[in-house]
Design brief:
Largest sheet: 4 strands, antiparallel
Structural class: alpha+beta
Helix content: 40-55%
Order of helices and strands: EEHHHHHHEEHHEHEEEHE
Number of domains: 2
CATH class of the largest domain: Mainly Alpha
CATH topology of the largest domain: Triger factor/SurA peptide-binding fold
Strand order of the largest sheet: 5-4-7-6
Number of strands: 9
Distance between the termini: 40 Å
CATH architecture of the largest domain: Orthogonal Bundle
Shape: elongated
């Protein structure tokens, strides 16, 4: 059976005032509980999840450089809530079908999320910043797992993607397949801290100056990184791998991408120390060949068609469902 990874059943589109929906649930009642925004056949939709989705959509729209109007904010609320309602209805269908979450897959996803942070404390702080607990995160991933399995069972045998559809998508979406400029970078960090006294800072500065002098004498960057760097890549010779624009801190990016292959940067000072970078290799911007991406295109289009089928089913279920909106008219946009 073809694997489908679908976590959002409804694509939310808010493009300008002309395309937005009307005021968000003007007929809605005053919220009966502060932590719920709706009841779907008696099952609650949490306000924390709603706020998180609203914030995500708002950030994406603000990325276009224009502030949102009141009507657009209202439309975001409307579309997000409607999406969550339909998602809940599909989840309820999955339970009726006896589908259970894949707990091993959920554990892997949580582990992968944890691994994005350097330590457990940073991971917990990020959950707190997003106003969710790990139990809440697990429940959402369990729901995603059940929905995904349900869609696989319902639509895997009915959805097809033709070669002409794949070629058409590729030709009309070439920007999607651009491989941006990449540079392979090595890094040396000599640590310092704003709280250190002047003498200790001078010692750190002297150490990085000596390393730079050694590099100018053609000493091996990787060997010096293993010997002197305080950075996390010390054990592999300072290798950061391939970096694309936008992946480095802004204070580093312009200087690093301006370097030629084999060239070492000047000393860059930040609050956490003194940095040296070396560009090992550069890969110019290219467009991936169709043959290299056609299977990914096939999978993407397959998932899009499955989402459309699931959304059609959700719309039918929505008409028959007992849905109580608890979100008040006065709700404001979610805050970062």
């Amino acid at each position: 059976m073809r694997k489908i990874k679908i976590y959002v059943l409804v694509l939310l589109t808010v493009i300008g005032c002309a395309g937005v929906a009307g005021p968000a649930y003007g007929q809605s009642k005053k919220a009966e509980t502060a932590d719920k925004v709706a009841l779907v056949n008696g099952a609650p939709i949490d306000k924390a999840e709603f706020d998180g989705e609203v914030l995500r959509i708002q950030k994406a729209l603000l990325g276009f450089g224009k502030p949102l109007t009141c009507n657009q904010i209202s439309a975001v609320h409307t579309d997000v809530l409607e999406s969550l309602i339909r998602r809940e209805l599909i989840y309820q269908e999955s339970k009726k079908a006896g589908i259970k979450p894949d707990e091993e897959a959920v554990d892997r996803e949580i582990k992968a999320l944890r691994n994005q942070f350097s330590n457990e404390n940073d991971y917990r702080n990020e959950l707190s910043r997003r106003n969710i607990t790990e139990d809440m995160l697990r429940q959402r991933l369990q729901k995603n797992s059940a929905i995904q399995q349900y869609i696989e069972r319902q639509y895997a045998s009915t959805v097809t993607v033709t070669d002409s559809e794949m070629v058409s998508y590729y030709e009309n979406q070439l920007d999607v397949f651009k491989q941006p400029l990449q540079v392979r970078v090595s890094h040396i960090l000599v640590q310092s801290d704003p709280s250190w006294d002047a003498s200790r800072k001078r010692d750190a500065r002297k150490k990085v100056e000596e390393i730079l002098n050694d590099l100018k004498k053609n000493r091996d960057f990787a060997a010096l990184a293993r010997e002197h760097s305080d950075g996390p890549t010390r054990t592999n010779g300072g290798d950061l791998g391939y970096i694309r624009p936008g992946q480095l801190d802004k204070q580093f990016e312009s200087k690093v991408f301006a370097l030629k292959v084999g060239e070492v940067s000047d000393i860059i000072e930040t609050d956490n120390g003194f940095h040296l970078f070396k560009v090992v290799e550069k890969k110019p911007e290219t467009i991936l060949a169709y043959e290299d991406v056609k299977e990914k295109i096939r999978q993407f289009l397959f998932e899009e068609k499955a989402k459309q089928e699931a959304d059609r089913q959700a719309k039918v279920l929505r008409e028959k469902a007992d849905v109580r909106i608890l979100l008040s008219e006065e709700v404001t946009s979610a805050k970062p």
